[in-house]
UniProtKB/TrEMBL annotation:
It comes from Halobellus salinus. Residues 187-208 are annotated as: Disordered. Residues 187-204 have a biased composition (Low complexity). This is Exonuclease RecJ.
Length: 404
């Protein structure tokens, strides 16, 4: 696993130079971070390469183990994270990688370049935690003009069945999350199951609006929720429906991309490349959501000055991607502190509201090293390999020393 400071290519290489390198390469190896933003960005670049007949390979990697060696043929591009020996890097620290990848893809092939898929790019933006209209207004306008994205009331889930969507969504964490029966009870009095309903009648619009209100109230009214949760749930409501995409909404697409990147990378790559696999992707999304919500509900948590620790002992403990999602959900819906550390078996996932995740992960990897494993990530999310059995108080003390 490589830190962002150990790189040989800038994390924000110029658009034109990366596009030129991709266009002229004999073979390209795309190594994407294991999240929806990295996967979407890799999909955008791969589609551009396919259009100009440049052969490529796409891999998704959480811990740096998939990094090509310096002797491998082809152009090595780090996507969503910076890697040692990368020839080019698409991982800006202050913007979604998918937004930068969309701009690069638009220039691959020069004047003959075709516009990249705005919905895939926007799904990556949402997966990164950004609001699409705030950071990618041109892409939103392009998608709306093409009829590929239409905003309406409701909840951002990838399926037509609201119960299925609310049970497994990781855009939010509520008392019904991960529990099908509880989700069904939460929407039982609504007249329709919403969110993918084709009708735009006044009654269905009101049903969608009622569903969104009910979800927001459930999140805010949770006894374990922190005040930040009321704001965090906003990213899960007022969805953009996506009639041409593999799933029902833009937020749902982002959720599925993240889940597949972390559960079944091969399925995620196929989805990002436009090769289908919707059913397999939704199965991975359901498994990811169910497991992560259960693990968060049963995690042992402790609050420290500036750090909230969730010790995970369930099925998520040994899986980096599940720990990463759990850390983000804890940050947004459970933690009164700005930094969350989710601790599993030899792995720690850090999640920060604004910054500090990478610094914390680097500190943990340096002070409690695991053999042949370091850390990877950025300001708001990172992963670190740590020695199994490291005491939580020692971890917290190390992070606090680093931050002072």
């Amino acid at each position: 696993m490589a830190s962002r400071t150990d790189t040989t290519a800038a994390a924000d290489d110029p658009v034109d130079s990366v596009a030129a390198a991709l266009s002229s390469a004999s073979f390209v190896r795309l190594l994407a971070s294991a999240d929806g933003d990295g996967l979407a960005a890799a999909g955008l670049l791969a589609r551009a390469l396919r259009r100009v007949d440049v052969p490529f390979q796409v891999r998704v990697d959480a811990l740096g183990a998939g990094r090509p060696s310096s002797g491998d043929d082809g152009l090595f591009v780090g996507v969503g994270s910076a890697y040692v020996n990368a020839d080019a890097t698409v991982a800006p620290e202050t913007a979604p990688a998918s937004l930068r990848a969309s701009r690069i893809a638009a220039e691959v092939g020069g004047t003959d370049a075709a516009a990249p898929d705005p919905v895939l790019a926007l799904a990556g933006v949402v997966a990164d935690g950004a609001h699409p209209a705030s950071v990618a207004g041109e892409l939103v306008a392009a998608a709306e003009d093409a009829g590929s994205a239409v905003q309406r009331p409701g909840v951002s889930i990838p399926v037509d069945d609201a119960v299925d969507g609310l049970t497994h969504s990781t855009l939010l964490h509520a008392p019904f999350s991960g529990d099908h029966d509880a989700a069904a009870a939460a929407v039982s009095s609504l007249s329709r199951s919403d969110n993918g309903a084709d009708s735009d009648s006044a009654a269905d619009t009101e049903t969608r609006r009622s569903l969104a209100s009910r979800v927001a109230l459930a999140v805010a009214g949770d006894n374990d929720a922190v005040p930040r949760a009321a704001d965090a749930v906003e990213r899960a409501v007022r969805p953009y429906t996506t009639p041409d995409a593999p799933v029902a909404t833009l937020g749902g697409f982002a959720d599925v991309l993240t889940a597949t990147a972390r559960e079944r990378p091969g399925t995620g790559v196929a989805l990002a490349l436009g090769h289908g696999g919707r059913d397999a992707a939704l199965d991975a999304w359901r498994e990811h959501g169910r497991t992560v919500h259960s693990a968060l509900d049963s995690a042992s948590t402790t609050r420290h000055d500036g750090v909230f620790v969730a010790r995970v002992d369930e099925a998520a403990a040994g899986t980096p991607g599940r720990l990463a999602t759990l850390a983000r959900l804890a940050r947004d819906f459970r933690s009164p502190e700005p930094l969350v550390v989710a601790v599993g078996d030899g792995i720690a996932a850090t999640s920060a509201r604004e910054s500090g995740a990478a610094d914390a992960a680097a500190t943990l990897a340096a002070e409690f090293p695991a053999a042949a494993v370091g850390w990877t990530g950025g300001p708001t999310r990172a992963l670190a390999g740590i020695a199994t059995g490291t005491p939580v108080p020692e971890m917290v003390a190390a992070i606090r020393r680093q931050s002072t």
